[in-house]
Amino acid sequence: MPRPSAFARGFRALRREPSVLLAEIAWRWLFGGIAAALIAWATIVFLRAIEVSKANQFLLSTLNPELMSYALRDLFHNKWGMLGRLGVIVGVSLSFLWIITATIARSATTRVLLERSAEDYAEQRDTCPNLRAIATIQFLRVALLWIGLAAYFLSAVIASRLTTSGDQPHVGAFLFLFLCMFLVAAAVLSFFNWILLLAPIFAIRDDQPFSDAALAAAHFSRSRSGSLIGLNLAHLAIRIVWIVFISGIALVPFGFAQILPKWVIFAAVVITTLIYSAVADALFVARYAGYIEIAEQETHPEPDPLPLPIATAPETYQPEADPVPVPSDPPPET
C-alpha cells in the first residue's frame, strides 16, 4: 500500500500537534509586537527631534510638490545622522531578539515534529535541543538579511556610478544594471537561506554540529529536489489563493467608510491581519512538517514489492490407460 504524500503528512501533523502551531504563533507574534513597539519608539523620538516652523507648516499645507520638497529638506537637515543611529539601534536589537526567540522556538517545534514523524514509522526517537547549532543557524540567517540590505544599496551605488555621464543619469540603464546585480545577489542569498532553513532538521534529528547539518541539508536538497519543489509549489498555490481571498475580505470595510466609524474599520483591518498571519503560520508548520516527512522517507525507504508468481499453463488431465493383460502360461498337460 503506498505511503501518504509529504503534503498530506504535513497537514496531518498540524492536526495531531496543535501545540506546535500555538508555539509558532506565540513566538512570531511576540517578536512582531516587540518589533512594532521598537519601531514606534524610534519614530516618536525622531519626530520629536524635528522642529516644524510656521513657514514650513505653510509650505507643507500648499501641497505643491516643489514647495513640499523644499520644506522636507529643511526639516530633515542635520537629522539623517540621528535617523541612521536609530535605525542601527532598532535593527541590532531586533536581530538579537530574533536569534534568541527563533533558536528556542525552532528547536522546540522541530523536536516535536521529528518525534511524531518517527512514531508514524513505529520508531522511538529521543531528540536533543542542540541549541548551539540552532543558534548558529539563526545567526547566519540574520547575517544574510544584513548582507542582502548591503547588497541592495551597493548595487544601487555601483549602477548609479556606471550609468551616470556628467550630471545626467541614464534611468533605463540604471534600472537594468541595478536589477541584474541585485537579482544575482538575491538568488545566491536565497540559496544559502534555503539550506539554513532545512539544517535544523538534521541538527536535531542526528545531533549534528552546524557544519555537518548544513552539508546534510545541501545533500538532501540536491537528492530530493523533485519532492521539495513539488511540496513548495503546492503550498505556494495555497498561499496565493489565501492572499487573494483575504485581500478581498480586507477591502470590504473600506466600502462602508462613509457609514462606519473609523475605529470599526481600523479594528476590522487589524483582525483581518491577525487572521491572515495565523493561517500563514499554520501553512508554514504544515510545509515544514512536509520537509521532515521527505527527510524521513530517505531513512525509511519504501520496501520493494514482492515479485509476482509466474503464471504457468494448467496441466491437462490425461486418463490412465487400462493395463494390457499379460497372457499367462498354459497349465502343463497331464
Structure description:
Helix 7 crosses helix 8 and helix 9 runs antiparallel to helix 10. A two-stranded antiparallel sheet has the order 1-2. It has a domain of 95 residues. It is built from ten helices and two strands. The chain is 75% helix and 1% strand. With 334 residues, the chain is mainly α. Strand 1 and strand 2 form a beta hairpin.
Short overview:
The chain has ten helices and two strands, in the order ααααααββαααα. The protein is mainly α and about 325 residues long. The chain is globular, with a radius of gyration of 34 Å.
Please tag this protein with its features.
single chain, 334 residues, mainly alpha, two-stranded antiparallel ribbon, 1% strand, globular
Structural class: mainly alpha
Q: Beta fraction of the residues? A: under 5%
Count of individual helical segments: 10
Overall mean confidence score, pLDDT: 83
Q: Supply Rg.
A: 34 Å
- Tally of strands: 2
User: In angstroms, what separates the terminal alpha carbons?
Assistant: 86 Å
Give the proportion of residues in helices. over 70%
Low-confidence stretches: none
Shape: globular
**Widest sheet: strand order?**
1-2
The string of secondary-structure elements, in order, is HHHHHHEEHHHH
Major pleated sheet: 2 strands, antiparallel
Secondary-structure blueprint:
Elements: H1 6-16, H2 18-48, H3 54-61, H4 65-75, H5 80-120, H6 131-163, E1 164-165, E2 168-169, H7 171-205, H8 210-223, H9 225-251, H10 262-299
Antiparallel strand pairs: 1-2
